[in-house]
Specification:
The chain is an all-alpha fold. It is built from five helices and no strands. The relative contact order is 0.17.
Length: 168
């Protein structure tokens, strides 16, 4: 095999593996396990503000036109535009709103992170609900085509949900 052909095969193999991983919610089906919040994680403190703590995370990672920042996107439009998302529109679009992928679970269930589909998506374990999801497809982990948010960022969102998902 020619050196360029070997390189092309290696790149295609690597790409197909990465694509398969992303297409399955960021986890190999055999490795799909529920994320367990460490018992040392205090969800009551510090107090988390939706506008000051959560919205900046959403703006940085969710508001691109290909994701949740454009009405033309195939995804749920949340009015998130990098740096300009309107918290007064975003919060009502997720708190108490049922997931289209998993109709038995709200995107954000105030005070209950374990019953919030958004948290399962950002933790990369939505695949644990595969049999319950519409068409057995819970979608990919978020942010899509990127590594999971760091634990500190995910816990900021988790604290906000645990603290009642307030408009603060």
């Amino acid at each position: 095999m020619q050196p360029n052909a070997r390189l092309a095969v290696a790149v295609l193999t690597l790409f197909s593996c990465a694509t398969a991983q992303v297409a399955d919610g960021g986890a190999d089906a055999a490795k799909c396990e529920a994320y367990v919040v460490p018992t040392t994680t205090d969800l009551t403190t510090p107090q988390v503000s939706f506008r000051n703590d959560v919205m900046p995370l959403f703006d940085q990672t969710c508001g691109f036109s290909s994701c949740h920042g454009s009405p033309a996107s195939a995804r749920v439009f949340l009015g998130l535009n990098p740096g300009t998302g309107d918290p007064a529109k975003v919060r009502p679009g997720i708190v108490g709103v049922m997931s289209k992928a998993l109709p038995t679970m709200a995107l954000v269930a105030a005070s209950d992170p374990s019953k919030s589909f958004l948290l399962h998506k950002i933790d990369g374990d939505a695949c644990t609900f595969k049999k319950e999801c519409a068409g057995e497809d819970c979608g990919v982990s978020m942010p899509e085509r990127s590594p999971l948010l760091d634990v500190k960022s995910r816990d900021t969102i988790r604290r906000w949900v645990a603290q009642g998902a307030g408009d603060n």
